Amino acid sequence: MSFREKTTPIIAAEKEEMRRLFAAGYDKPHIAEQVGRSYSAVCACVRRLRPAAPSVAKKTRPCLCCQKTLESEGAHHRLCPCCRKKTTTPFDL
Ligand SMILES: [Zn+2]
What we know:
Strands 1-2 form a two-stranded antiparallel ribbon. Helices cover 40% and strands 9% of the residues. The protein has 2 domains: 12-52; 59-92. It has helices at 12-23, 28-35, 39-49, 81-86, and strands at 59-62, 69-72. Bound molecules: zinc ion. Zinc ion binds at residues 63, 65-66, 68, 79-80, 82-83.
């Protein structure tokens, strides 16, 4: 008997895992290996998931410097473009 990929229906937890890995930027063959599913199963699942998962979840946050609201790309993005330009590093002093 040789190893065979799972043929049982994909459960929600597996879809969730595929979605998570796909969002994290893993390629489909890698995801297939991770979840123990065939490449085509991952393709079908990810294709179905894609419209529901926006590429970048932008959020409106206040700028840490001037409090002006900005479209933040994530936790690393907290300064408006103006304040970003103004920011000085120890090398600028
Ligand atoms: Zn600002």
